[in-house]
Amino acid sequence: MNESFVVTAIKTFFPNSPLAMFYILLSLVAGWMYKQFRTYLINNQKSTTGKKWGNAEIGKRMKYKYF
Q1: pLDDT at 43
Q2: Cβ 57 vs Cβ 48: under 8 Å
Q3: Are 33 and 41 in contact (CB under 8 A)?
Q4: Where in the sequence is the domain holding 38, given as residue range(s)?
Q5: How would you class 19 by CB atoms within 10 Å of its CB: exposed for 0-12, middle for 13-18, buried for 19 or more?
Q6: Mean pLDDT over residues 6-29, rounded?
Q7: How many whole angstroms separate alpha carbon 29 and alpha carbon 27?
Q8: Are 20 and 10 in contact (CB under 8 A)?
Q9: DSSP characters for 1-67?
Q10: CA proximity to 10, closest of 30, 65, 19, 43
Q11: How many domains does the chain have?
């Protein structure tokens, strides 16, 4: 048994080599896009939360300073 299970599975599912390469590249690109989108969402959520807390802090300062 010289080949790994992954290589055997790829050869079984995709006997045509260019088609297999296309699907492998497509899945890698999809994984990368998912990672980038998730990072964007997390950073956007952090930014929104920071703005909310910043506005609340400014409101507290104004309350104590002017009222």
Answers
A1: 83
A2: no
A3: no
A4: 5-66
A5: exposed
A6: 83
A7: 5
A8: yes
A9: --S-HHHHHHHHH--SHHHHHHHHHHHHHHHHHHHHHHHHHHHHHHHHHHHHHHHHHHHHHHHHHH-
A10: 19
A11: 1
Q: Sign of dihedral through CA atoms 7, 21, 23, 39?
A: positive
Rg of the chain over all Cα atoms, to the nearest angstrom = 25
CA 1: distance to chain centroid?
37
Gap between the Cα atoms of 30 and 22, Å rounded: 12
How far apart CA 54 and CA 37 sit, in angstroms, is: 25
Distance CA 24, CA 30 (A): 10
Distance CA 3, CA 20 (A): 17
This prediction's pTM = 0.50
- Whether 20 contacts 14, CB under 8 Å: yes
